[in-house]
Write a structure and sequence with these properties.
This protein is an alpha+beta fold. The chain has a single domain (2-321), classed as Metallo-beta-lactamase, Chain A (4-Layer Sandwich). 33% of the residues lie in helices and 24% in strands. It has helices at 45-57, 74-77, 80-83, 94-100, 110-116, 125-129, 205-217, 235-260, 265-271, 286-305; strands at 2-6, 9-16, 22-29, 35-38, 65-68, 90-93, 143-146, 151-154, 157-163, 172-176, 181-185, 223-226, 232-233, 262-263, 310-314, 317-321. The N and C termini lie far apart (50 Å). The structure holds zinc ion (ZN). The site of zinc ion (ZN) has 6 residues, from helix 2.
Amino acid sequence: MIEELLKDIFVISIPIPKSPLKNINCYVIKGNERNLLIDTGFNNQICYEALTAGLKELDIDMERTDIFITHFHWDHSGLASVIASDKSKIFISEIDKNILIGLVDSRNSVKKANALGFPDGEKNIKKISDSDVMYMPLKPVNYTLLKDGDVIALGNYKLECIITPGHSPGHLCLYEKKQEILFSGDHIIFDITPNITSWLENEDSLGAYLKSLEKIREMPVKYTFSAHRSAIGNCYSRINELIEHHEERLEEVLEIVNRLKITTAYDTATKMAWSVKADNWNAFPPIQKVFAVGEASAHLEHLFFKGMLRRELTNEQYHYSL
Ligand SMILES: [Zn+2]
């Protein structure tokens, strides 16, 4: 499904079956010399067919097209190396590139699983989070690194990189100042709440995310184009909802710690309310457990960084208490 949103800006909606994300919105901006594709979908057959069909319908020649990856997650980066031509640049932030190429282990390690409090049988998070809808880029790629403030000029549009850490450590939005257009990636999604997980040791990912939301709230934005579900929405009302959501979650987590006296991220997640279609915690699909424990960890860590909780490392496991 393709739609022209503004002059020379198109959205290709790519299905993501068996995932609450439902789809990814890949954007194409046609320029004079070169075009830009923003995000790609997973490296799997369904995404590949939908994306290449969309690019064909828009008459996009990959020899004249570069690819911008908002963040390292496989639903955004998976197909970049598959569809790129020899002349395509593939843009990404440095920190997310390092995660993508495995230099930094963001989430999928047994050590991390242990720190989060996963029980023995569930410690191999990498294995349990593998599923047939999650395919990562396979070919080695020469990424072109972008940082906050860098500009990609394309015909009528000048797209500025806005660093918005939170959903990933190096998440980049693109902002067109003249027409006040924001490509928000997974930083702002309208119909679902972007997953915030803890990433690297001793970094407050939720704190970073809330700051990144405030950063966007200060900017004049007329059009927000998001990466999942509804492509278009009002970023200001959504930012307020997202901040409120996390404030409520922080209260919920604080109440759980108070009740349990001492707890891990895993145990906290089992006590939080989730909108996952499962009768109880044990019936959660493994990937949803990973996301839930990550969310619990991000909220616990934020409370720790704010000085509202204590954190102790015993047996390489983080325990939180009041
Ligand atoms: Zn995504």
